[in-house]
Amino acid sequence: MTNTLRCAIIEDEPLAQELLEKYVRRVSSLEHAATFDDAIVAYDQLPAMHPDIIFLDINMPEMTGIEFLRAYPTPHPAVIVTTANPNHALDGFDMGVTDYLLKPITFDRFLKAIGRAREKVNGTSQPVSAAVTSENLPVLSEKGTPSDFIFFKTDKKLEQVHFDEIVFVESLGDYIKVFLSDRFLVTLVTMKKLCETLPSDRFLRIHRSCLVQLRYIKTLEGNTVIMASGQELIIGPNFREEVKLALKKWLIS
Questions:
Q1: Which of 63, 177, 205, 234 could disulfide-pair with 39, CB 3.0 to 4.6 Å?
Q2: Are 115 and 178 in a shared domain?
Q3: Above pLDDT 70, what percent of the chain?
Q4: Is a pLDDT exceeding 70 seen at residue 125?
Q5: What is the pTM of this model?
């Protein structure tokens, strides 16, 4: 079993470089192998360094992170994507990405990603990226309705998610992204199917592409819902009256 993990950072933003290097130094079981601000240079020099983990920014000039992954010799090390755009996570699903860190990156979330990478390096788990298959549907109980949890199919495995963990859900074309308190899942299922599955007394659709859990709504301001996690979500024109009626039940006036 590997104890010390060699980490390489491919990132063109100096502040992001410094933060990742700082986090790596804070963990005694990690070793900083190299930092690159150019993916082309990294592609040329990195294989000889034999890193266990690569922190890879997606949006870089000359060669993007996705292009780097496609070209990098297989089998890949554990790759942790770093990006300010959560939609970029979809691009790496068929490349065995181990985890995705959304900027700004917190230390606790960094540690969770390292844990997943260590499992990959030691051969004890599969990547957390979602498989693109027509079978990625929520798994219901035998009676066709869940109790207080649901299963999502991700990367050829079933992952149990309790309703309390779900903050909100966004539709991404044929996929949905399920935002949990500390991470997100992406799977192939329609928003309509999910709305039919989740309990309507706990979840509220505020847009044709967005579903929120009522308990995590912190503020309603105009046509914007602000979640306890800080995300600001727009209420669609066709859903405004329904949202007002739903929240009116708990209004003290």
A1: 63
A2: no
A3: 83
A4: no
A5: 0.52
**Is 60 exceeded by the pLDDT of residue 147?**
no
Q: Do 85 and 168 belong to one domain? A: no
**Pair of tokens at residue 74:** 């297989």
Q: How many domains does the chain have?
A: 2
**According to the model, what pLDDT value does residue 131 have?**
32
Are residue 51 and residue 100 in the same domain, yes or no?
yes
Q: Are residues 106 and 160 in the same domain?
A: no
Output the pLDDT for position 168. Answer: 94
Which domain range does residue 36 map to? 5-121
Mean pLDDT score, 164-180 = 87
At 40 the pLDDT is 94
Over the stretch 207-245, which tens digit does the pLDDT of each residue have? 999 999 998 998 888 889 998 888 899 999 999 988 888
Q: Looking at the domain assignment, is residue 52 inside a domain?
A: yes
Look at residue 253 and tell me if it is in a domain.
no
